[in-house]
Design a protein that fits this description.
The chain is an alpha+beta fold. 42% of the residues lie in helices and 22% in strands. Helix 8 runs parallel beside helix 10 and helix 10 packs antiparallel against helix 11. It is an enzyme of class 2 (transferase).
């Protein structure tokens, strides 16, 4: 009978051992050294594999185990696991004598469905899933165990990203619903049909901002792009009478939604009652970063009908004020100059 593989010889002449040797002989019929071939097979496997005797002392390990552990175990002295330090998934220390391999040997049963974290000597950590399995001889006596460690670091990172995404989606959905509720509450009209038209316009403004944010994976929106999207619904001749100027400013999601609502109200008012309702009217929209780090945006209308300050605050103005004050901790001023409305908005770029 050919010599037995070192990785399995600690188990004695068990049935499983003999079967393993037979498999190797079938795979390498011309091999004169089955032990070397077995070691080559185990070394070629990408998974970390090691074996122990019945007392848990390491008897074999492959190079994948060295890579995972970040160290080279001491044959015959290291016990239970090839790793340097162990931790439970919750971060608490896991003594080697309580690790899955130790439990598998102590209780003489395979351990499945558990996870652990290994810390390497250099301080880096790797999450892994072990598969410790006791080995018995032909008489049923425990002679050792084999363990395979699967690196699940990437999987755990993906799971964490998914959890973060789920929490973020829930947070954004709640925020969006709150904005919509406020929009409904602040909307008034003389008839139900007018109410529907006004409300739909405001919700469309939110939808456009939401679509922009989705395209950037909710990392923020450039103000110029937000303005362009909000004014995209204007016909070509009207859009040509809106002049825009300002540096590239990135708004976070909360700021983007609030500014979108404000721009929608200003544009709607200009089309119905202000400068854009007249053929010669125009809007000059400029923005900058103020010295205090806040957004400073000015909407200036010229060439429209004569302007006088209204006797009461309109609902569009209320929407702008409440949105900017509530969501962005900002301030809004309306200057009803004879040549046209001037609205100035100062707000936080990242209110959260």
């Amino acid at each position: 009978m050919p010599s037995e593989p070192r990785g399995l010889s600690l188990f004695g002449p068990s049935r499983a051992h003999r079967q393993a040797a037979n498999v190797v002989e079938l795979a390498f019929p011309d091999a004169s050294d089955v032990e070397a071939r077995c070691r080559d097979i185990l070394q070629a496997l990408p998974a970390a594999i090691y074996t122990t005797d019945a007392d848990g002392r390491i008897t074999f390990y492959n190079e994948a185990a060295v890579a995972l552990a970040g160290r080279r175990p001491q044959i015959g002295s290291d016990q239970w696991c090839v790793t340097w330090k162990l931790f439970r998934p919750d971060g608490t220390p896991l003594p080697h004598a309580e690790c899955p391999m130790a439990v598998a040997l102590r209780e003489e049963r395979p351990i499945r469905g558990v996870e652990a974290i290994a810390e390497r000597p250099d301080g880096s950590r790797v999450a892994f899933e072990p598969f410790p399995t006791p080995i018995h001889d032909g008489a049923g006596r425990l002679i050792g165990a084999v363990n395979m460690l699967i690196d699940i670091t990437d999987r755990k990172a993906a799971e964490e990203r998914l959890l973060v995404l789920m929490r973020e989606v829930d947070h954004r959905a709640n925020n969006l619903l709150a904005v919509v509720q406020a929009t409904v509450r602040l909307t008034e009209a003389a008839t139900v049909e007018d109410f529907k038209i006004v409300l739909e316009g405001r919700i469309r403004a939110l939808s456009r901002a939401h679509s922009l944010l989705a395209r950037t994976r909710w990392t923020g929106v450039d103000l110029a792009q937000l303005v362009a999207d909000e004014l995209a619904g204007l016909d070509g001749a009207t859009a040509a009478r809106v002049f825009m100027a300002g540096p590239s400013i990135r708004l976070d999601p909360a700021a983007a939604q609030s500014v979108a609502v404000a721009l929608h109200e200003l544009a709607t008012n200009a089309l119905k009652h202000g400068a854009l309702s007249q053929a010669d009217g125009a809007v000059d929209l400029r923005w900058r970063i103020a010295l205090d780090g806040r957004l400073d945006l000015t909407w200036r209308e010229t060439g429209g009908p004569d302007v006088t300050q209204p006797s009461r605050t309109g609902f569009g103005s209320m929407v702008i004020q409440n949105t900017i004050l509530r969501d962005l901790r900002g301030e809004v001023t309306f200057d009803w100059q004879p040549q046209g409305l001037v609205c100035r908005i100062k707000a936080e770029l990242s209110p959260n």
